[in-house]
Amino acid sequence: MGNGQAGRCIFCGATGLSKEDVWPRWIRRATSHPGSDRSSQMITHALLANDHAVVAPQLHERQGPTTSRKVRKVCRDRCNGGWMSQLETNAKPLLLPMIKDVDHCELSLADQDILARWAVKTSIMMQFTDLSTKTSHPDDDVDFYQSGRALDVNRVWLGRHVGTQWDRRFFHANAVVGDRRTGQIVDMWGTTTIVIDSLVVFVLWDAPGLLGPKFPYSSEMVSIWPAVDEVEWPPTCSFADGTLSEAAVWVQKAAGQHFMS
Ligand SMILES: [Zn+2]
């Protein structure tokens, strides 16, 4: 397959690429903070732990428009104008009440399935804006397309934000663990934090399956993937700016602790 090669769709391998909005256009129309766009660029540093190097890129903030960002990685017909467009149509009525901070929202298993798929799709697209933090493997992108669902390596949560620093923003953090002698990558984790006004969408990439069970924000987030039962949004607690900033880089701390211990 040609997936992952220049000029080929990351999902289906077709040619005929088009530019895809990283932030879907309907979100730009639905939210009202045009001056608050921020993007986050990562600066990489390494923590050394025993025989491993935990590479944990750090946040460096950059002002400027992010919601108009586009990436040219998917084909026009089958993906961008096909299932991805349909996914936006399906996800939008589920996302909007939470973006607009309604009192109470019940999410069925089918709703959670759509929202988790939307979250993973959006995480994959956002990772292409800064390849130094790319976590999903090209095979993951293909598996995601072929299965039509969030992946086994993913966990997805939803939260509620009440601060002022994160009103419309995305942030992808990753932690790469390598063997210090061979330089081989041992494990890789990442999280995408997407905030659209009141709604927080949090996507974990945890191929080793080690960090998900240690997730410490269970009272601030409701888990929607893997889905087990109906859930209600908002969760018991909301995120203030400080806690949300900690959550956005939690994956790095957790990876570091895992290899220090
Ligand atoms: Zn395609």
Radius of gyration: 18 Å
* Largest sheet geometry: 7 strands, antiparallel
Instruction: Determine the fraction of residues in helical runs and give it as a percent range.
Output: 25-40%
Strand tally:
13
What is the H/E order?
EHEEEEEHEHHEEEEEEH
The computed structural class is alpha+beta
User: Ranges with pLDDT <50 over ≥5 residues?
Assistant: none
Distance N to C terminus: 41 Å
| Spatial sequence of strands, sheet with the most strands | 3-4-9-10-11-8-12
Bound molecules: zinc ion
Total of DSSP H or I helical runs spanning 4+ residues = 5
Overall tally of domains: 1
Describe this structure in words.
The protein has 261 residues and is of the alpha+beta class. The protein is 30% helix and 31% strand. It is built from 5 helices and 13 strands. The structure holds zinc ion (ZN). The site of zinc ion has 8 residues, from strand 6 and helix 2.
Detail the topology: elements first, then pairings:
Blueprint: E1 17-21, H1 25-30, E2 38-43, E3 46-49, E4 52-55, E5 58-63, E6 70-75, H2 76-99, E7 105-107, H3 109-127, H4 138-147, E8 154-160, E9 168-179, E10 185-196, E11 199-206, E12 221-225, E13 231-233, H5 241-260
Antiparallel strand pairs: 1-6, 2-5, 3-4, 4-9, 7-13, 8-11, 8-12, 9-10, 10-11
Helix pairs in contact: 2-3
The protein binds zinc ion (ZN).
Zinc ion is lined by residues 9, 11-12, 14, 74-75, 78-79.
